[in-house]
Amino acid sequence: MKKIFLPLLFLSSLIFTSCADKIMGYSVVLWTIPEQQIKSGDIVPVYIKSNISHVYVIGTESGEKIEVALWQLTEPVKKGKIKNVAARYSENASTYASVKLDGLPCRAEPVNTAKQVYRLRKGEVIKILYKGNGQAPMAGKTALEGDWYRVLTDDGTLGWCFSYNLNLYETDSSGQRVGGAEIIEEAEEDAHWKAIAAGVWYPDYFRTMIDGGNIDLGLIHPLYKFTIDLEGKKVSLNTASIHESWDYDGYTKTDDNEYSLKGISLKIIYRRANYIVLRYTDSSGKPQDLNFVTLSESVADIVNAEKTRRSQAYMQIYTHGPIFSSSSYGKLEFKEDGSFKWTGFKLLVPSVIDAGTKSTGSAQIKYSLSKELASAYDGVLTMKFDGMSREVNFLYKLDGAAIRMEDTTGADFSGNQIRSRGVSPVIVYLKK
């Protein structure tokens, strides 16, 4: 082993030395390297690129070779092309910026609706690379002052940022700010307003639904929420019955934590960290208070889980049958697509099923059960017969080789949940 290893080690050393002496290209420095007196905008020779260590090996004026993170340089090019690359960065070679606004987004394109690639922290320092052409964000009907810039963060993320919420400044060769220290704003941002603007707020009945396991897919949706876009100066309010979006121009605050948004008839009352009240006036001039909360759960996950629950419950009925029958109540056949055919149900007319109703229709698991009923039943089967305007609901229990269905006429419904049985229900027992 030693006889083989030593020549290999010697050979790899020769290869590394050879590569380290051969220039693979030239790059522009994007972020100043003060310890080596290398400033942003400088052109440096590149000898090695390591995708494993994520570094370039570059040469310095003193002839020393050092490792530099990949993100700190442009991609190496031939010597004849490097001047064109450097020209792109020359205007802002020594320009950096500090961030004014916590959560300021970097975007994939120079437009305010483009995908966010990074959220900046207040006071974070970023490198300004070059100016771009894009549409300025709007504050009401007025475009914000500033420009779109291609920027680089200190972890190597590239994106586009609008300069309205940036403090741009120049640096010297050591990376220090030219012209003194950064000016610190005298007034701290209002903590409650900051919490309101940073949050995603959902109708408070979402919390009630989630805690009670009573999910009504007609009332809960990931898009039903209230949000504030600080950068774009926009407010959005979406519920099952309200779909509004406004431009606003700042806010005023009263001593009781009530925030009035300038330019729109909407007030926000801060109650606590996860609870606000929106005082909303509709188009008819009628005011109403809407309660909103923040959630730790994902609304999309909650909705998907409820859809899965309903689908799986129906498939249990289907696979348990799919055909059930009795001498008294006819033959009921469930289809995999959620449709059904029920013939011979005359004894249920008109007390449960309307006269003149067709034998076909669609079935689904729509409602949930209270804890008391869940111990005795498997669920609630909702049937919509063709030719019948109302739905018919049955509490059901899969019993051996049969299904037991109990009419819910007179049952206590609370939202999307059945709390108690009817007084004198009709019970249908069908065997496989």
Describe, in plain words, how this protein is organized in 3D:
It is a single chain. With 432 residues, the chain is an alpha+beta fold. Strand 11 and strand 12 form a beta hairpin. The strands form eight sheets. The protein has an eight-stranded antiparallel sheet. The longest helix is centred in the last third of the chain and has 22 residues. The chain starts with a helix and ends with a strand. Helices cover 16% and strands 38% of the residues. It contains six helices and 33 strands.
What characteristics describe this protein?
single chain, 432 residues, alpha+beta, eight-stranded antiparallel β-sheet
Largest pleated sheet: 8 strands, antiparallel
Alpha-beta content class: alpha+beta
Overall pLDDT = 88
Please state the CA-atom Rg, rounded to the nearest Å.
Answer: 34 Å
Shape: elongated
Number of helices: 6
Assess the beta-strand content as a share of residues: 35-45%
In the sheet with the most strands, the strands line up as 23-24-25-26-28-29-30-33
Low-confidence stretches: 1-18, 183-188
* Share in helix: 10-25%
Number of strands: 33
Amino-to-carboxy terminus distance: 75 Å
